[in-house]
């Protein structure tokens, strides 16, 4: 039990980079980017193939980062310069990457056993924690720079930021590139942690990323960027813990996980809404009673 | 400073929905000119603003800012010359960002945006001073999200953001129309003071006739995409609302059709 929970936290930290990437597009840029399913595998493929070819694992992860950035740039270009709908741009890139990833890997399943591994020197927990914290703090700082502010404003009010001289096409491309770079980085780390890359490991990743963001925000709130990125990292971990616990339920299988993920997301989306509705209803009830009782007094005084 | 020559703009050209939004518009503004713009609904006032700022490109004609032909430049590259306040109080600010972050964005108008922090102790001091000039206490709420401000407060902030970097041209498109009378009055007064202090070359659309006459040194009247009347500094002195409406009826052959027109 404890072992599987530690494993879940470790995985959660590695997936946190992916979730931070999804947070950038969905929450900061307000751009529903589905490239993620493809770019996650791209990162895993680059990280694996380069390691097998003999380059140091850390270098392979860095290259995965840039590979993801290229994929994101293409999605961004498709959307901004090609005027293709945002969702569709991501879907097109995702499907294109499926073939590209297979080219990089050479075959659908590539084992990494016996090769150098980024987790050789230190535990997954240590490295995962360091990377997740660095990515989180790095993003927090970036979003306070002039460039970061213009990126946030692009998602918040693009008309406004254009009127102050920022090229919103540029900021969108940059944001989607940064997002997919983080996603690909996460893919490379996951490949190293499970000692293999396969061509379908990114399928459904966007939903897991979204689930992490939504769970994190629902539990920890997102008042400031600092809080929001923290919530996303913790959300990614909590998702993995729920996943691990669900697998321990006797009548549930690994193949049920996609359904469980869907249920988790629905829960995280619906529960806050219901909570808000109940709260506003009780406020309304209280206010109505107050108004009625005050009216009762005035009419009583008038008669 | 700003020269508009023979500018025309059609919407849906060649279809049954074709609309002539601007037709051969000419306008020449000198440094420090403050021109108020009036005209009925659909006269092309907002289109004129959008064409100057680059939101739309003209179908014909030229636009010069300080001698540079800008009609084919993108909106964001023209922003280095042009400050704008929109009618919608939501349009000019980023609601999920703080007051100081919004100001930091405006502070970098037309400059490259790099990896230095947008808000630092030095420019925070500038922001506080500028905000206190508005006189509505925003200087004490610099880390509040702009989405929490009222419409009037947001519009005052938009005005400050549009002007405090002293743009060559200030465009105001009915920027008080969405506010209640008291707030509108406040924003109008702020506009007057800021434009005078910074000597900004300003083009202001308003549906308030009294305001159009009282503010600025020149006035233009638009109808059906055309600038039908230009009132210069000397003529504007003795102008009254009745005379202005009379002029409109005489030239266009109809009454000023704008249910929102405020006479004074
Ligand atoms: N995006 C658009 N598409 C089609 N027609 C438009 C568009 N914008 C404005 N128009 C039309 O152009 C004319 C001028 O509009 P506008 O400049 O907004 O007028 P005003 O600001 O003076 O009320 C109107 O007939 C309007 O219906
Ligand atoms: Mg208008």
From TrEMBL, chain A:
This is ABC transporter permease. The keyword Membrane applies. It comes from Paenibacillus pinisoli. It is a multi-pass membrane protein. GO terms for molecular function: transmembrane transporter activity. Keywords: Cell membrane, Membrane, Transmembrane, Transmembrane helix. It comes from the Bacteria. The keyword Transmembrane applies. It holds the Pfam family BPD_transp_2. It is found in: Cell membrane. The chain crosses the membrane at residues 12-29, 58-78, 85-104, 124-143, 164-190, 202-221, 228-247, 259-278. One of its GO terms (cellular component) is plasma membrane.
Automatic annotation (TrEMBL), chain B:
InterPro entries: AAA+_ATPase (IPR003593), ABC_transporter-like_ATP-bd (IPR003439), ABC_transporter-like_CS (IPR017871), ABC_transporter_ATP-bind (IPR050166), P-loop_NTPase (IPR027417). Its main location: membrane. The keyword Metal-binding does not apply. Residues 2-249 form the ABC transporter domain. Pfam families: ABC_tran. PROSITE patterns: ABC_TRANSPORTER_1, ABC_TRANSPORTER_2. GO terms for molecular function: ATP binding; ATP hydrolysis activity. GO terms for cellular component: plasma membrane. Keywords: ATP-binding, Cell membrane, Membrane, Nucleotide-binding, Transport. It comes from the Bacteria. It is found in: Cell membrane. PANTHER family: NITRATE ABC TRANSPORTER ATP-BINDING PROTEIN, TAURINE IMPORT ATP-BINDING PROTEIN-RELATED. This is ATP-binding cassette domain-containing protein.
